[in-house]
Amino acid sequence: MRLSTDDVDDLCAEVFLALLADDFAALRRFRAKCSLATYLAVIARRVVVREMARRRKAEALGHVPAHQAALDQAGSQPVHERRIDDADEVEAMLSWPR
User: Fold this and answer.
1) Where are the beta strands (DSSP E) in the chain?
2) 41: domain range?
3) Which of 6, 11, 74, 97 has the fewest beta carbons under 10 Å from its own?
């Protein structure tokens, strides 16, 4: 499933909401058994997987139409160019301060 920029923004917002929920309960549960980055990555992954599963189920049931912009974007750019763009984005994220 290809995500649009709006989808990525929505998922980032969902991750932040999960971190802020119940007066930062997720952050207070951090026990330093792993790095904070790993802990936050696990939280982010769970939020994203849960949301993607919810969206796929809603689309399969016909409640939400498939995101047309994402479909248009997926077909407009060759696969190798998308991979290069994705690789550049991953490298940029890895360069963020830890």
Assistant:
1) none
2) 5-94
3) 97
From CA 39, how far away is CA 26, in angstroms rounded? 10
Give the pLDDT of residue 88: 74
Query: Radius of gyration of the chain from Cα atoms?
Result: 16
- Say which residue the tokens 């951090």 belong to: 30
Cα separation, 71 vs 73, whole angstroms: 5
Structure tokens at 45: 């992954």
Which distant-in-sequence residues (6+ apart) come within 8 Å of 30 by Cβ?
36, 39
Domains: count for the chain: 1
Which pLDDT score, from 0 to 100, does residue 65 have?
Answer: 58
Tokens of 13: 């917002």
Q: Which pLDDT value is given to residue 76?
A: 61
